[in-house]
Amino acid sequence: MAAQPVTVLITGANRGLGLEMVKQMLEGKCPVKKLFACCRDPNGPKAEALQALAKKHPNVHIIRLDVADLGSIKQCSQQVGAQVGTGGLNLLINNAAYLDKSTVQKTTAEGMQTTLNTNLMGPMYMTQEFLPHLRAAVKASKIPGMSTRKAAVVNITSFLGSMQLVKDTFSIFTYIPYRISKAGLNMLTVCAAEELKKDEILFSLLHPGWVRTDMGGEEGEIDAPESVTGMLSVMESLTEKQNAAFLDYKGKTLPW
């Protein structure tokens, strides 16, 4: 029996990991009915590669979205809702992120707030505003249990949000605002999984690895295609057993 086509939304889809996710999902085994590729400036130079993909694939819909702006999130949710209707949204990938590399001594209130707005408040508001679409997907689905083909929120996090790994990683990455925002995202995800498990919506955290992107830098250990291939494979394998799991792109469980 052929897999049921899914609807997917990816934030930060114009470059790096987000753009690679769009590319690989379009070429993947699981058919994509609609792919909402969201970014802050769809008509800007940094979205040219995404625009080129959308021209080739009519199931790609580019939507302007600033995850640090609740008004923008609400508007995006309305646009998506108008297109998916009662079929809902099967998979929400909160990928957009902001990196502040400051130390404890140099971190500013402005830097911390900007980081938290994008990395923590953004995914929280995205979850809240897209919850009706995720619930609609559960209602429309005939798949038992939990999965990313039914209704799921995958939050792209980092091993830098792990408290247990601080001693192992701090000499290479200080990144205080970023670390705190990702630790907060981890807690948010675990709480959301607990609160919404009765709705049969899966929540999971994925660490993409240290990737050579604009954010990860040239010193990264892997390229975006390798990271995304791994993450998509992990996403496809997720069930209720991995609800609230903290995994890397290879499917390995990470310490909190």
TrEMBL record:
Molecular function terms, GO-annotated: oxidoreductase activity
Pfam families (alphabetical): adh_short
Gene Ontology CC: cytoplasm
Family assignment from sequence similarity: Belongs to the short-chain dehydrogenases/reductases (SDR) family.
Name listed for the protein in its UniProt record: C-factor-like
Organism of provenance: Sparus aurata (Gilthead sea bream)
